[in-house]
Amino acid sequence: MAPYLFLCLFLFFPHFYASSSGSHSCSHHEAASLIQFKNSFSITQTDHAALYCDEIAGHKSYPKTNSWKEGTDCCSWDGVTCDHLNAHVIALDLSCSWLYGNFPSNTTLFLLPHLQKFNLAYNDFNHSKIPSEFGRFTSLFYLNLSNTLFAGEVPSQVSHLSKLVSLDLSFWANVLTIDKHALEGLVHNLTEVRHLFLDGMDMSSVNAHVFMNLSSSLRSLSLAGCDLQGKFPKNIFDLPNLNLLNLGGNQNLNLDPLKFNRSSNLEHLDLSSMSSSTEFIDSVDNLQALKYLDLSGNSFVQGLPVSITNLSSLEQLIISGANIFGELPDSMGNLVSLKFLVLSQSNLSGPVPRSLRNLLQLTHLDLSQNQLSGEIPSSLGNLLQLTYLDLWQNQLRGQIPRSLGNLLQLTHLELGWNKLSGQIPLSILNLTQLEYLAIYNNSLEGSIPDEVTAFPNLIYLDLYDNFLNGTLPSWLYTAPSLKDIDLSQNQFSGHIKEFQSKSLEYLYLNNNKLQGPFPSSIFQLLNLTELVLSSNNLSGVIEFRMFSNLQI
Ligand SMILES: *[C@@H]1O[C@H](CO)[C@@H](O)[C@H](O)[C@H]1NC(C)=O
Ligand SMILES: *[C@@H]1O[C@H](CO)[C@@H](O)[C@H](O)[C@H]1NC(C)=O
Ligand SMILES: *[C@@H]1O[C@H](CO)[C@@H](O)[C@H](O)[C@H]1NC(C)=O
Ligand SMILES: *[C@@H]1O[C@H](CO)[C@@H](O)[C@H](O)[C@H]1NC(C)=O
Ligand SMILES: *[C@@H]1O[C@H](CO)[C@@H](O)[C@H](O)[C@H]1NC(C)=O
Ligand SMILES: *[C@@H]1O[C@H](CO)[C@@H](O)[C@H](O)[C@H]1NC(C)=O
Ligand SMILES: *[C@@H]1O[C@H](CO)[C@@H](O)[C@H](O)[C@H]1NC(C)=O
Ligand SMILES: *[C@@H]1O[C@H](CO)[C@@H](O)[C@H](O)[C@H]1NC(C)=O
Ligand SMILES: *[C@@H]1O[C@H](CO)[C@@H](O)[C@H](O)[C@H]1NC(C)=O
Ligand SMILES: *[C@@H]1O[C@H](CO)[C@@H](O)[C@H](O)[C@H]1NC(C)=O
Ligand SMILES: *[C@@H]1O[C@H](CO)[C@@H](O)[C@H](O)[C@H]1NC(C)=O
Ligand SMILES: *[C@@H]1O[C@H](CO)[C@@H](O)[C@H](O)[C@H]1NC(C)=O
After folding, report:
1. Which residue's CA is the nearest one to ligand 10's atom 12?
2. pLDDT single digits (tens) 373-395
3. Ligand 9: distance of its center to the CA of 413 in Å?
């Protein structure tokens, strides 16, 4: 989304990204306004900014205004862009800049008449109101106040910004509200708007009908968690340029099944957590351009709508925490563009469809926490691009197919809490990229495949609660990245050798038939935090459990 937006702004406003270098430098008056603006805040990284900017959005926050020094050319300051002809400040990007404090309604910044782009996203304005003076920035085509901890009513003056191409007031914390008057003004006046993000804004006092007359230029409309009421206007689906639509979490919206237009260009559709009882989508197969579909948290009383499997451009399908009654249709295999498939925690039953073998682009497959039964189809070994495979907590039986050893890109393999039996296939030694291997709580037997150099990247190994026997494999002692080993509740026998992995933190070998002395060199592994050896036939120290760095 972001790169796409950048590109489109660049195409339509090439002058805008002009460099700030040039013979002119910024006027005293504009520099003074900026300094005055900066001085109205404390520059502190609050918990809010750290959480939302750095952790959730994954941007790197830092105080951009630290480079703002009186007596220097403001066009060279971090976050400031000037027009190269006359050095007017035309863009301010202060997103993620540690601004903290109530937003001043009398700031002289509102007198910068040439400002076209203003980004204040991810600062902390301490629950102050959006000043109505924002309505003075009549040259703005881009305004971003996303995740700023502005609170209260959105002033109706925002609708005076009739040149806006992009408006982002989204914030998941539900602290902004908008009334009928202001929302109608926005829809009516923003005739150029292409990107409208209002997620989390409380719209419970307005009928969703107001969105009926949105600009035909609209490309993105994001209204997740807005508590929309009434009927969503059907003509939104006819907007010829609409590319992204997010209505997630609006549980009070009246949905007589949403009908999609065959000429739609929608690529990204999020309808998560909208319906707990009714079939609410119809003719979804009209969305032939769709690449991303999220239907998590809904109920599908008649099973997964089969028409979804006609979406031949779909790259990501996410349905988690839903209630889907019935089996996965075999036509899942028609979704040949899929890269990312999550169908977890959704009450699915029946077999894993063999047709998944056709999804040759798939890199991520998560079918965890359902009631899927039958065997793991060996045809999953066709999916050579897979890096992530999770079938945790189902009712799968039979052997682990040898063909999984074909999945050489796999980093994450989770088959725990099923009813798998037989031996772990030797071919698993081929999975040299594996970082995470978990097959706990099954009925596996025999010994663990061994080869000294196996699993050079393995970090996490979890095979507890099976019937595995034989000696511990030699790679267990040498795999350089292993941090977490749980082989408890099996029937392993023989002696324990010296562990060489300095990264080892957790080692559980309890409830086995291990014998002999325990190698004291284990105490040199400084990162070891927890060691459980109880219920074996070890001599010397038999049972102990320790936390923090072991020192004896
Ligand atoms: C934040 O708001 C609280 C309560 O409204 C106020 O007491 C405090 O001074 C404000 N902090 C700043 C830095 O403006
Ligand atoms: C804005 O108002 C505050 C008091 O409300 C005052 O201290 C400050 O000087 C004013 N700033 C400007 C630029 O007028
Ligand atoms: C608003 O700014 C944030 C932070 O830079 C960015 O992640 C987000 O995509 C922006 N929104 C729009 C609509 O450009
Ligand atoms: C539309 O914008 C103009 C100024 O650009 C303003 O005078 C008018 O009040 C706005 N209309 C609404 C409904 O907000
Ligand atoms: C949409 O525009 C039409 C024609 O201008 C007008 O009659 C109608 O009332 C508007 N609807 C809404 C909900 O604003
Ligand atoms: C689909 O949208 C187009 C405009 O993009 C419109 O002309 C057409 O009537 C719509 N079709 C239906 C069935 O609503
Ligand atoms: C899927 O598309 C085919 C033709 O492309 C059509 O015949 C069929 O009815 C569609 N199936 C569903 C369930 O929409
Ligand atoms: C799964 O379906 C059963 C009824 O068949 C229901 O009781 C249960 O709550 C559902 N589980 C989830 C996670 O929705
Ligand atoms: C595993 O790799 C060996 C050689 O490295 C190869 O002979 C064997 O066929 C592979 N097995 C699978 C299941 O890919
Ligand atoms: C192991 O799996 C069974 C079902 O196969 C389940 O009932 C049990 O709670 C699981 N135990 C653990 C410790 O995961
Ligand atoms: C491991 O168990 C299998 C059967 O599950 C048995 O055939 C084999 O002899 C056992 N090996 C050892 C070393 O106990
Ligand atoms: C031990 O833990 C520390 C802190 O978590 C980490 O920085 C260090 O890399 C670890 N040592 C090894 C050998 O993994």
Report:
1. 441
2. 999 999 999 999 999 999 999 99
3. 18
